[in-house]
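Changelog-adjacent note: as of this version, every example in the card shows the full chain rather than a window. The one below runs 124 residues end to end.
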Amino acid sequence: MSGGDIAGLIAAGVFAVLVALLAVPVLKLGRVFDELRTAIRTVTDETTPLITEVTSTVSTTHQQLKNVDGITSNVSDASANLSALSSLVAATLGAPLIKVAAFSYGVRTAFAGRKTPAGRRRSR
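Full-length structure tokens:
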């Protein structure tokens, strides 16, 4: 064996050791990719029913919001009707009640003024 053959054997041995040392991280990286593929498959399998359930929930919530919208519309109409009724009652009964109250106050004041003795009345 010559010096070139020995150098070639040494270089081949060093290359084999280098390949062996690089094979370990590559194998570990392959396992990481396998785990990543499994995790993605699990997330995909669990996400599909979840999206279906969310779609159903959103649809049900939308229907309930339509119902609530109808209810609030009816309540708004009812409150407008009550406001109109209140205004009507105030206009119809308010003015006569004020007149009756003023008349009764005047009558009470007149009777209260007659009951006091003549000397104690205030002169105006």
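Structural remarks: The chain is about 90% helix and 0% strand.
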